[in-house]
Amino acid sequence: MKSAVLVTAILLSIGAASAAPAPVADATGNSTEDRVARLERILQAKQQSEFQTQQRLDTLQQEVLDLRGLNEQQSYQIEQMLQRQRQIYEEIANLSSKSTQQVSITTPIGGAQTPASTLGETASYEHAVNLVLKQRKYAEAIPAFRSFIKQYPDSTYTANANYWLGQLLYNSSDFEPAKQAFDTVVNSFKDSNKRGDSLVKLGMIAEKTGNVSSAKIYYQQVLKEYANSAAARLAQQQLSAL
User: Where is the signal peptide (predicted)?
Assistant: First the structure.
């Protein structure tokens, strides 16, 4: 009886030992803690990769915005240039049309050209402009523009005539009368499309004559009143070089 009980107790002990839970391990022999640690590392690496990817996306998005802004700026500048071209073409077309309608330019016997003072308003202006653009007779163009300004002080071409006169005098280094011509455009023709350019020329004359402080004032005025124009870009270049 005692032997049977003893045998039974031994068998129960062996069964209990066999039934005790063993440490959890995967097929590679790693424990659960190792697997959790490895998964955490994988998760951290994934989060870091996603963060870096988002940073790159943000950078690319900013670059796209910058390029879009640059493209819009260039488009605006091109449009301004095209608009200015159209204005020039329209002015030339108007000159030719009005000249044909109002004046018949004749050449007297002996081959001498009719003096500009005998021409009409439009033809007189066109005559002075042609001395510059077609004939390259700059010295003759100066008195031609002066004559036009004197004879037609209220003409629609008077602002442009003063600008042409100022430019010719500036090119001849005759700065004081050039300044007077550009001042006339700035002060008497505030709606003229030559006013911004005239302010730039006044600044350049001030530079040439050693008055740097006045030059800065003229350039700053252009930047304030004619922002994003060709005159403003030239004024900024001149101002940066001071």
Answer: 1-19
pLDDT higher than 80, residue 201: yes
175-188 helix and 158-171 helix, angle to the nearest 10 degrees: 160
Single-letter amino acid, residue 140: E
| Domain hosting residue 56, numbered range | 52-101
Based on the domain organization, do 123 and 80 belong to the same domain? Answer: no
Q: Is the confidence at residue 29, as pLDDT, over 90?
A: no
pTM, two decimal places:
0.53
Domain contains 196: yes
Q: What letter represents residue 223's amino acid?
A: L
Name the pLDDT band for 141 (thresholds 50, 70, 90).
Answer: very high
If asked whether residues 91 and 132 sit together in one domain, one would say no
| Residue 195 backbone phi and psi in degrees, to 5 | -65, -45
Average pLDDT over residues 221-229: 93
What contacts 68, CB < 8 A, 6 or more positions away? none
One domain for residues 62 and 156: no
Q: Which residue, 125, 116, 115, 132, is CA-closest to 155?
A: 125
Give the per-residue pLDDT at 33: 79
Q: Which of 92, 76, 90, 88 is nearest to 229 (CA)?
A: 76
How does the average pLDDT of the chain come out, rounded?
Answer: 76
pLDDT value for 101: 46
| The two three-digit tokens of residue 95, written as one number | 């000159």
How many CA atoms within 13 Å lie on the side-chain side of 115?
Answer: 5
Residues 195, 92 share a domain? no
